[in-house]
């Protein structure tokens, strides 16, 4: 385990009965970076997150998080991470502040009230702190959910589709919060189906398709996958949508067996 990697995944495989969901997944996530795992419905994003967060056992392969193997040192991994699931874990009956205090108490931390007030301020929820979460907008609820996952300051956080179902304004609010997290040194692995989300947020983007990472790179590196555009037609840089379709859409028979490596990939050992 090299110290600069917060997450290291090698040869990960997982099947549900006959359904071979992960077929050999490899990638690294650098400390303090934002890594986006992109894929369509059913690609296996949540499955991968569950394995990385010790909730599910892989059939083959290894995962190290914060330097700890997820099987041999599951307890250490759990101390190092938080997981914000695809569906919000906020208690609607409690106020925003009470939700955070509850998590701090469950984690046996000192001064839950102060922890709550600090996090509420960081996520611009101070004014709404005393209101029941049931009165929050989708964006506020998601921010509260992420704030709750930061209680105890885990160095690695997993966000499974953090902005699914949110309107553009709310998505922007969540994006801002996620950026601030990484600025403070937290490693963020997020999954998304939104290409623009990966484009806006992530230092590195990996596309999970038919059980494998078919491309892994920075946005600039992903841009090189496309053939160069003819100068006279170029009005803007290709979007991730263009890149995604160029890789996945055009030639789906070919894509299962051939990983497209871009820039420095996760292949080094
Ligand atoms: N417990 C399970 N038992 C059987 N099949 C499962 C189970 N969990 C997931 N699957 C299947 O595995 C595949 C991958 O599911 P997963 O939830 O990891 O995808 P995902 O990329 O997170 O999709 P989404 O974008 O819809 O959240 C899907 O075909 C799903 O139906
Ligand atoms: Mg999912």
From TrEMBL:
GO terms for molecular function: transferase activity. Residues 7-235 form the ABC transporter domain. It is a peripheral membrane protein. Keywords: Antibiotic resistance, ATP-binding, Nucleotide-binding, Transferase, Transport. It is found in: Cell membrane. InterPro entries: AAA+_ATPase, ABC_transporter-like_ATP-bd, ABC_transporter-like_CS, ABC_transporter_ATP-binding, P-loop_NTPase. The keyword Transport applies. It holds the Pfam family ABC_tran. It comes from the Bacteria. PANTHER family: ABC TRANSPORTER ATP-BINDING PROTEIN, ABC TRANSPORTER ATP-BINDING PROTEIN NATA. Belongs to the ABC transporter superfamily. This is Glycosyl transferase family 8. It comes from Amycolatopsis oliviviridis.
């Amino acid at each position: 385990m090299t110290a600069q990697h917060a997450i290291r995944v090698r040869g990960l495989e997982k099947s549900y009965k006959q359904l071979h969901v992960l077929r050999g997944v490899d990638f690294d996530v650098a400390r303090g970076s934002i890594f986006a795992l992109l894929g369509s419905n059913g690609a296996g994003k949540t499955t991968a997150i569950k394995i990385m967060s010790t909730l599910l056992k892989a059939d083959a392969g290894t995962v190290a998080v914060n330097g700890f193997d997820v099987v041999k040192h599951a307890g250490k991994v759990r101390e190092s991470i938080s997981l914000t699931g695809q569906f919000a874990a906020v208690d609607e009956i409690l106020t925003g502040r009470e939700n955070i205090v509850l998590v701090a108490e469950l984690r046996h931390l000192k001064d839950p009230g102060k922890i709550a007030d600090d996090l509420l301020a960081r996520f611009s929820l101070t004014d709404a702190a005393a209101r029941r979460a049931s009165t929050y907008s989708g964006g506020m609820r998601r921010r509260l959910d992420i704030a709750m996952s930061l209680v105890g300051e885990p160095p690695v956080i997993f966000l499974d589709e953090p902005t699914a179902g949110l309107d553009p304004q709310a998505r922007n609010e969540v994006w801002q919060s996620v950026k601030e997290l990484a600025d403070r040194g937290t490693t963020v692995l997020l999954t998304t189906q939104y290409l623009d989300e990966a484009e806006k947020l992530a230092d590195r983007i990996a596309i999970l398709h038919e059980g494998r990472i078919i491309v892994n790179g920075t946005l600039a590196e992903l841009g090189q996958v496309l053939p160069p555009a003819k100068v006279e037609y170029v009005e803007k840089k290709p979007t991730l949508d263009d890149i995604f379709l160029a890789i996945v859409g055009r030639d789906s028979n070919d894509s299962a067996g051939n990983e497209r490596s871009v820039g420095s990939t996760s292949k080094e050992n």
